[in-house]
Amino acid sequence: MSDQAFYKWKMMSFPSGEMPDFATYYEKLLDLLKSDKPFSLVRICDGEIYVMAFKKSVNGSISPEHVEHLSNNLQSLVDMTEEGGNLLIGLQENTIWNAKMHITDYTNYLSGQIKNKIPASLMSWTTVARNFQNIVAEINKSERPLILVGPAHLKNLKLFKEYEIITVPSVKCWEHEIDIQERLSDSISQKKNPIVLYSASILTKNLILKNYLLFGDDVIQLDLGSNLDPYCGVNSRPWHSYI
User: Fold this and answer.
1) Strand, coil or helix: what is 203?
2) Which helix (DSSP H) or strand (DSSP E) does residue 221 occupy?
3) pLDDT of the chain, 243 residues: tens digit per residue
4) Which residues lie below 8 Å from residue 106, measured CB to CB, with a gap of 6+?
5) Are 123 and 43 in contact, with CB atoms under 8 Å apart?
């Protein structure tokens, strides 16, 4: 991996150089995976914060009905966090996007409510800082079966051991939540305490909430966002082409 990936990512996120202590949070995540204890990690990034703050999507691609549904689910996740609990929320704070999207005040408001918080950018940091392979290694060591939820190109993924994929549409996948959740919950029910990795846009947030409520004491859920894409030959972020 080229150092250009880290530089490109940093310049589009933390150009001032003032970043969270990603290494500490990374070790915490790695320890959780090593412990094999159930937990769920969901990320609230700039787009989701915008939805919660202004009750609309940035580009208007999400209908008012789905905006309300997402906003309510995100607030429920925030309300459910507790110190030492097994629900972690990654919040995107102090990036250039908070200021550009005028969501800094609302981000600060959310930050004060979340009781078990990590930086939302941790997953992308692990990728560009060459630490993602260690997360992959811990997942592959686990005896838990693996389920991936995401677009069809994840079928090309070679990182992990055997896994089942629940495919979602590459466009507006959140409009198919009922069908996808039915397939996913059936799959979880048929397996023994699986690990579920999500790469499904805002649908991820809705699914993690549902399955945390249904299976939270048994499963591990990780919101990986677009961070699997470059390992499938898909460059969905400007720094992916350097990975």
Assistant:
1) helix
2) strand 220-223
3) 458 888 888 888 888 878 999 999 999 999 999 999 999 999 999 999 999 999 999 999 999 999 999 999 999 999 999 998 999 999 999 999 999 999 999 999 999 999 999 999 999 999 998 899 999 999 999 999 999 999 999 998 999 989 999 999 999 999 999 999 999 999 999 999 999 999 999 999 999 999 999 999 999 999 998 889 888 887 767 677 777
4) 49, 52, 53
5) yes
Instruction: Let me know the angle formed at the C-alpha of 204 by 202 and 208, rounded to the nearest 5 degrees.
Output: 135
Q: How many residues does the chain have?
A: 243
- 3-state SS, residue 30: helix
Q: Where are the beta strands (DSSP E) in 69-115?
A: 87-91
Q: How far is 59 from 217, CA to CA, in rounded Å?
A: 37
Residues 128, 6: Cα–Cα separation, whole Å:
5
Contact 42, 89 (CB under 8 A): yes
CA distance readout (Å), 152 to 89, 165, 173, 227, 239: 27, 8, 12, 15, 22
Provide the residue type at 151 as one letter.
P
Q: Is 91 left (phi over 0), alpha (psi -120 to 50) or beta?
A: beta
| Count of other CB atoms within 10 angstroms of residue 225 | 23
- 164-167 vs 195-198, strand pairing mode: unpaired
Q: Which amino acid is at 234?
A: V
Region for 13 from its dihedrals, namely left if φ exceeds 0, alpha if ψ lies in -120 to 50, beta otherwise: alpha
